[in-house]
Amino acid sequence: KKAAIIKSISSQPLTNEKKSDTNSEEDVETMTKANLDYLKEITSGNNEQLLKILGIFIMNVPVQLKSLADSEKDKDWAELKAVSHKLISSVKVMDLKECEQTLRIIETAAIKKTNSELSIEEEYLLTGKINDVTKKCSSVIEALKMEIKKLSNS
Predict the structure, then answer these.
(1) What is the pLDDT of residues 87-144, one digit of tens each?
(2) What φ, ψ does residue 76 adopt, rounded to 5°?
(3) pLDDT of residue 28
(4) Is residue 43 over pLDDT 80?
(5) Distance between CA atoms of 61 and 145, rounded to whole angstroms?
(6) Contacts of 52 (CB under 8 A, 6+ apart)
(7) What pLDDT score was predicted for residue 134?
(8) Closest to 137 in 3D by CA, of 86, 78, 76
(9) Which of 60, 83, 88, 89 has the fewest Cβ atoms nearer than 10 Å?
(10) What is the SS3 assignment for 133?
């Protein structure tokens, strides 16, 4: 069962976004270690449970990130709000505080846009926030895939 989870996780494609230039390998490594320490704590060191949580994150988040970008591109503000809300839960489980804060900004902007309260400038900045969160999450996912391989060998 563990091998099937690892194989499934390792084969998941990332979003089409390029790796972030603003996330150094050291930053991603530090975030990943913190995430894993946090998850090991909440799973009481149970590797199977840890792999399951990581697998869910790795499989679901890229799909949600694509939906986030698509809903912004399509100007579907209700969907943007809904997807950003779902993503907040996902990144919170992984203790990705910076991504969580950015997603809260996106969610708030979607609410404002629904109520016609978002300026053109704010809408332009929204695209940048979506790109930022996509790059950060994608970098973390890459690092987590490597950590999963290490965990499977231990």
Answers:
(1) 999 999 888 899 999 999 999 989 888 777 777 777 778 899 999 999 999 999 988 8
(2) -95, 85
(3) 61
(4) yes
(5) 13
(6) 5
(7) 95
(8) 86
(9) 89
(10) helix
Specify the pTM: 0.76
Closest to 60 measured CA to CA, from 105, 7, 15: 15
Separation CA 113–CA 119 (nearest Å): 8
- Asked if residue 113 lies in contact with residue 123, where contact means CB atoms within 8 angstroms, the answer is yes
Q: Is 14 strand, coil or helix?
A: coil
Closest CA to 8 of 67, 51, 63: 51
Q: How far is CA 81 from CA 42, 47, 92, in A?
A: 28, 34, 16
Whether the CA torsion 122, 128, 131, 135 is positive or negative: it is: negative
If you compute the radius of gyration of the chain from its CA atoms, what whole number of angstroms results? 16
Angle between helices 47-73 and 77-93 (to 10 degrees): 160
| C-alpha triplet 59, 109, 140: angle, nearest 5° | 30
- Which residue matches tokens 């069962």? 1
